[in-house]
């Protein structure tokens, strides 16, 4: 199992056929900001579940550090960069997802810009966990320890121009002006995308998003 996959149906088929190391199959959907990770994760989850493979989505974003900590460290403007996450805590969760019957995990409330502890529950009946996030294939300390845990690793391939367009639209929707939205996209989100692109571990599958 390797190479590009062109459709949701093809991706679901490849995932469902993949062997698993533990109690559950762990699927990574890795991609930069605005690559469509969340949308694809939910669509894949629904497709698998409808086909008889109960699935759930677990986002990485619940491991954002709290804003006061980022302020203290001078990192608030870089929120979303690797150093603004609890990478070790996330790694610990992923190891638990594979084996434990029921697992509580944090979720990120975008409207309040905070992480909520224990806001999600992975049910015992779940067969396949779809984990989505920016740094699931990032070749850096702690983050790289995730790679051996994935039964299927999927990288989302999105042109840079498309990412920029989506990111600017996202920040405009949050009330920023055009110059502010462009600066936010260029100064943080696209910088993070370039960081990952320059240090990405191999994926099993590549999905055009």
From TrEMBL:
NCBIfam families found in the cross-reference section: PRK09270.1-5
Signal peptide residues on this chain, from the entry's feature table: none
Protein name, per record: Fructokinase
InterPro entries reported for this sequence: P-loop_NTPase
One function term, GO molecular function aspect: kinase activity
The species this protein was found in: Vannielia litorea
Coiled coil region boundaries: none
Top-level taxonomy: Bacteria, Pseudomonadati, Pseudomonadota, Alphaproteobacteria, Rhodobacterales
Taxonomic superkingdom: Bacteria
Entry keyword set: Kinase, Transferase
């Amino acid at each position: 199992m390797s190479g590009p996959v062109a459709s949701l149906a093809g991706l679901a088929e490849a995932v469902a056929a993949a062997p698993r190391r533990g109690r559950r199959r762990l699927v990574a959907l890795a991609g930069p900001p605005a690559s469509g990770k969340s949308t694809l994760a939910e669509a894949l989850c629904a497709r698998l579940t409808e086909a008889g493979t109960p699935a759930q989505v677990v986002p990485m974003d619940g491991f954002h550090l709290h804003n006061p900590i980022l302020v203290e460290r001078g990192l608030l403007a870089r929120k979303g960069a690797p150093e603004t996450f609890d990478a070790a805590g996330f790694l610990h969760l992923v190891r638990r997802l594979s084996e434990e019957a029921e697992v509580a995990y944090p979720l990120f409330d975008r409207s309040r810009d905070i992480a909520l502890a224990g806001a999600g529950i992975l049910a015992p009946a779940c067969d396949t966990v779809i984990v989505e996030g920016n740094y699931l294939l990032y070749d850096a300390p702690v983050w790289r320890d995730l790679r051996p845990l994935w039964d299927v690793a999927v990288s989302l391939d999105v042109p840079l121009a498309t990412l920029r367009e989506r990111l600017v639209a996202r920040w405009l929707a949050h009330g920023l002006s055009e110059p502010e939205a462009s600066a936010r996209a260029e100064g943080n989100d696209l910088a993070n995308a370039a960081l990952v692109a320059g240090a990405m571990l191999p994926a099993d599958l590549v999905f055009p998003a």
